[in-house]
Amino acid sequence: MTDGAVPAEHVAGYAEILLDACVTGRRLTRAELESRRAQGTRAAEAGLPLRGLIRGHLGAAREMQSRLPSGSVGALLAAVEQAVDAFAEGYERAQHQAVRQEEAARREFIDDLLYGGSDLGRLAERAERFGLRLSQAHAVAVAVGPEPYGDGYPVARGIEETVLARFGNRQLLLTTKDGRLICVAPGDQPDVLAYFAKRAYAATGGGRVAIGRSHPGAGGVVHSYEEALNALELAERMGLEGPVLHAADLLVYPVLTRDRQAMADLVESVLGPLRNGRGGAQLFIDTLTAYFDSGCVATEAARRLSLSVRALTYRLERIHTLTGADPADPVNRYTLQTAVIGARLLGWPGEAGA
Fold this sequence. Notes:
- Helices cover 62% and strands 8% of the residues.
- The protein has helices at 14-24, 30-45, 50-65, 73-115, 120-129, 154-167, 190-204, 218-238, 252-256, 260-271, 281-293, 298-305, 309-323, 330-346, 350-353, and strands at 137-144, 173-177, 180-186, 208-211, 215-216, 244-246.
């Protein structure tokens, strides 16, 4: 299309409509308006720019003016206004439909990408359309905040715009899923996910981000995503601190619970006698957790529990008496700490056993 010229198929009948409307002084009929909407739709589907199309319509109207009797300028302008408005309406309607289809295709791709519900070869082909090359290794970061993330939400949109402005050429994907904000990035570019985590935490004022390990291929995205989700769940269950969790740092926990029955037996055998202590088992588990988390430094553990060092020491002595295991003894300490981790992973003792 040359500057100011509209392809013939998109102005078919336009001059006739203007001429008849100007001669009779009438408004455009419903059929005429619908024909202009249809032309606008086809022009949008052809990918033609709207500004050029409008300019071409106005140029055609100027040419029409010389063929009209004097005094009909007002009628011409009214007819052009109606015709161009209908044309633009059809154009915008087609664009909105295209956007909805694109959003649906993107959402379907994301679901397949994160849940592995599609042929991997076909998934890799579709991924290139959205800026990913699944032949590479990828890692996934998942952010959760005080409020759920959703497509178009100001917080999610702000984080996405900031990350893309800095790393827009890095072949990454940002999206939302189940109220979480997700970033998929090449596995050899940890700076992208680190920056994403920083922005997500800053934007929510208390959110948390988990980063899965890098894995190759289309299935690697699913694997890394699941690791990040598991890390978030584990942090919630274990009360782990810190705004950013790395799945690579938490691998010991799945190992400990791989044989769930064996872990349950260890917990019950080692910690079961704590039920008989004053305050119940949970009180002593919290004491041991603070003691181990502070590096077995009594003063720091007492501070964390808002106790005096004497009160903490008394609790540790009661644990020794009830269980037969001394928290201060290196050999006993390993057994007790493993049992305490297992109790937190399994939710033991629960309300009934507390």
